Amino acid sequence: MSSAANPMRSDAPTPDAAGNAWLGHPRGVWLVSFTELWERFSYYGVSSILVLFLSGATLTGGWGWSQESALLFNGWYMGVLMMAPLIGGLLMVRHISERQAIAWGAILVVMGHLAFFLSHTSPHWTQWLTGQSTATLFAAPGLELGKLSSDAAANAYAQVAGADAANPWAFTLAYRANAYLFYAAVALLFFGTALIKPAVSSIIAGFYRKDDIRRGEGFQLLFFGLYLGCMLGITIPGLLGERIGWHMGFSVAGIGMAIGLCVYLYLQRDWLGGVGLAPLGATRAERGDPVAKRDQLRAYLVHGLFTIVYMAIFYQVIGLLSLYIRDHVDRHFLGFEVPTTWVQNVSVILFLMWTPCIGFVTRRLARGGRHFGATWKGVAALTALASGFALLALATNDARPALLWFVAAYALFGLGDALLGPAQLGLATRLAPAGQGGLYASGWFVFVGLGALLSGYIGAYSSQNIAIAALLWILALVAIGAAGVYALIAGWLTRWSRGADDLPVAG
């Protein structure tokens, strides 16, 4: 990538920023975490309302899809975007630096949100261009939008032809612009996420030695920013999407990413110093023991399998449970009807509260010679997840359950996330050979994405074939069963990790 086309190039980089600590951590860690905050604001701003938008009636600005189709697409969206970082991880090995990946990824995400805006306003700007009343036709009851087949627009027009109509060509233009721009936006978000996600994960590792206890805490800071962005993304775009218009929710999520991009470009040279300037493959590979490397890869893959199980269950929160809360839960609180998307925020807020507590407990246990590493945190996370779904299974025995049940369950989900995510991602980078931290971090997001994709299929099938209470009990039993297996093989995982999951305490 040439310097002329590279918004990240620094002709005279400052000294390594790792020495400029703020609250015990390099300033660069805080900047990267801030940038990740806005990338997650973008991601969750879309994903928190996507299934509601797709299944919403056209009269309210939705696309009129069936719940099954909406859940399946939602699962694919979350899964594919979570797996996208593998592409960026491969590119960072030889072709682009972490800092370039963050900048160009953020630019693509901003462009994606612009495409969302143009998609959702297409009935209005095509009406302005053609002078035909296309906007009113998009609100016709029973209409199904967003289909890409050649005759989809013609079939849709036939449904609304009795209205005070536009010409077929004008309606077809608006229909196809609405669909193609939406999918173009998804593609731009895919490629943007492919670059930015592995870069922010691997560049964090560059500020610490592998044996530095603060390394795990650096990833906790990254996840803190991630979940704060998630909370804001659910709260602001969620509220605007549900109460004002879906286009507002999708569009405002991009404003946050634009803010994060501007701050990052302004501060990166001084705050990141020499970290992240070269492709990761520029690091000389360590020879090491091939048997140890094989064992560590084995540990990495087994941990990844349990991550897939966890995420396949957890992401029902954004899919099937969102639709259930919208349609069946009493969301009134002190005279105010809580937006559906806001319920998701309970797990996010509790994640932010649990994270420093877990860090404190981990340090105290380590100083006493007791280790609370990624394996046992994973066991505890699956146990918390199982407990939350068991609570929801009990709650759904009522025809219209109280919101308090969901608050309690989502608090447990927040605990599970705080235990699993930072520990697993930090372990992934420690298990990686030299120069492949970004690739291993990307692989961890592939595990997350596979779980999210699987959650879409589970939700789509269950919405038509399994009672909600029965499904929740099944998911609770699968989670607690996985926790039991995880605990049984903990000794093997410790040996395979070759010390990567057993860090000393600084000071």
Can you describe this structure?
This protein is mainly α. It contains 19 helices and 4 strands. The protein has helices at 27-55, 67-83, 85-94, 98-120, 122-130, 134-137, 152-160, 168-205, 214-243, 246-272, 290-314, 320-328, 340-343, 345-367, 374-395, 403-431, 437-465, 468-488, 490-497, and strands at residues 21-22, 25-26, 332-333, 336-337. The strands form 2 sheets. It has a two-stranded antiparallel ribbon with strand order 1-2.
Give a topology summary.
Blueprint: E1 21-22, E2 25-26, H1 27-55, H2 67-83, H3 85-94, H4 98-120, H5 122-130, H6 134-137, H7 152-160, H8 168-205, H9 214-243, H10 246-272, H11 290-314, H12 320-328, E3 332-333, E4 336-337, H13 340-343, H14 345-367, H15 374-395, H16 403-431, H17 437-465, H18 468-488, H19 490-497
Antiparallel strand pairs: 1-2, 3-4
In short:
The protein is mainly α and 507 residues long. It contains 19 helices and 4 strands.
Main attributes of the structure:
single chain; mainly alpha; Growth Hormone, Chain: A; two-stranded antiparallel ribbon; 19 helices; 4 strands; 72% helix; globular
Oligomer: single chain
- Biggest sheet character: 2 strands, antiparallel
Taking the alpha carbons of the first and last residues, their distance comes to 43 Å
The Rg value, from CA coordinates, equals: 23 Å
Strand order of the largest sheet: 1-2
**Strand/helix succession:** EEHHHHHHHHHHHHEEHHHHHHH
Shape category: globular
Task: Round the mean pLDDT to the nearest integer and report it.
Answer: 82
Structural class estimated from helices and strands:
mainly alpha
The parts where pLDDT drops under 50 for at least 5 residues are 1-19
Number of domains: 1
How many β strands by DSSP? 4
CATH topology: Growth Hormone, Chain: A
Give the percentage of residues in beta strands.
under 5%
Give the name of the CATH architecture: Up-down Bundle
Going by CATH, the homologous superfamily would be: MFS general substrate transporter like domains
How many DSSP helices? Answer: 19
Query: How much helicity do the residues have?
Result: over 70%
CATH class: Mainly Alpha
